[in-house]
Amino acid sequence: MKERFIKSTIILIIGGGITKILGMVIRICMTRLAGLEGISLYMLVNPTFSLFMTMSQFSLPNSVAKVVAEDKYNNKKLVLGAIPLTLILNVMLIIIIILAAPFITTYLLKDPRCYLPILAIALVLPFDAISSVIRGYFFGKQKMLPHVLSNILEQIVRLILILWITPSLMKTSVTNAVTWFIMVNVFSESLSITILYFFLPKKIKIEKEDFIPQKEEVKDLLQISIPTTTGRLISSLSYFLEPIILTLCLTKAGYKNEFITTEYGVITGYALPMLALPNFFTGAISSALLPVLTKEYARKNKKELKKKLQLGIFFSLLIGIPVTILLVTIPTLFLKRIYHTSHGANYLRILAPIFLLSYIEAPLGTLLQATNRASKLMVYNLCGVILKTMTLFLTCFLKIGLYPLVIALSANILLTTFLHLREAKKILT
Questions:
Q1: Nearest-CA neighbor of 279 among 20, 5, 1, 71?
Q2: Residue 7, class by beta-carbon neighbours within 10 Å (0-12 exposed, 13-18 middle, 19+ buried)?
Q3: Is 59 left (phi over 0), alpha (psi -120 to 50) or beta?
Q4: With left for phi above 0 and alpha for psi between -120 and 50, is residue 204 left, alpha or beta?
Q5: Contacts of residue 429, Cβ cutoff 8 Å, sequence gap at least 6
Q6: Residues with Cβ < 8 Å from 288, sequence gap 6 or more?
Q7: Which has more pLDDT, 371 or 62?
Q8: pLDDT tier, 390 (very low <50, low <70, confident <90, very high otherwise)
Q9: Membrane-crossing residues (predicted)?
Q10: Alpha-carbon distance 368 to 408, whole Å?
Q11: Alpha-carbon distance 92 to 90, whole Å?
């Protein structure tokens, strides 16, 4: 079991690394092909895209993975029964997007060019949702290769289609090019579904009855997916409110809008992406850890449950500690090498030790999901978001520049990690 967990983690890290590199190449190509105007329009639509993708997936990769790992149902019926549910949800989301697109375009994004890209989001959702359900099956079986291979080929197809079609669309309008950037996901996700299908057991015979959701299976899936998705939506709302609160309060405190925008850009554009680098690895570790912890919890083996969690935390710290030391001691070097600037070094020195706690929060959160405590995970995240928002609002009037955001982020991490640790102690003792 230990060897399988380590193997799964290594596959996810290597495959994820290749996917990240391809993603960076795609972003560079998009920028060069569509120019500043095109990429700015895409980034304007992207938060809406991310929000609907979160709702579309409904945290089914995690919930399907957990229930499959428990091995108490017929996995074929579980996975196929989840597909009609996710399609019903996505039909509802498609209707919402079509009806809300004019409002979002006119009153929220305030750019009429966003209309077609937002409508394109509706077409992507069902393909992404089906892909997520099938991925959850492979996660639950601790078979990471299909997921990794489909992700890599998906990115390659995206890159080819963007390079091939975008130049022609740019001759018509930048809006059409940006719409294509979103539409291309339909083709890449379709390929992903096809690849995942070929990795499914060959002896499976699919019948119409298999697509009928079973009450107990649906109940188990929703116990995880509802609180997990709610937690993610709460976090998204928090990030949405963050710049609004900062701008409102700091301007009242006497700061100029230009200063607020610049410093906020330094924190969110330079410091936070560097602090989030280990999250890529801890996320891979957590994905591999979920089915392992689920199996041990189902067997009521607390000793092995504790060992596997400790192993997950060890791997997270193995990556997190060196990164933290480097960002505390020589932040300027990394900022100059990556961004060609020294702005943000002071923020990095303060936040890096605090973010070390967030790297162990990921495996702790996985423990809560594996032990049927997803609702508590949601509550703890909500507590963190409330504390962060209150801290941000109150400290903005201390006239300490953008450090209220640093304090608020730190308070959020400290509280949520403490709550996760306290719950983990209850589970393991």
A1: 20
A2: middle
A3: left
A4: beta
A5: none
A6: 5, 8, 9, 12, 142, 144
A7: 371
A8: very high
A9: 12-33, 39-58, 78-104, 116-138, 145-165, 177-200, 237-255, 267-290, 311-335, 347-365, 400-421
A10: 24
A11: 5
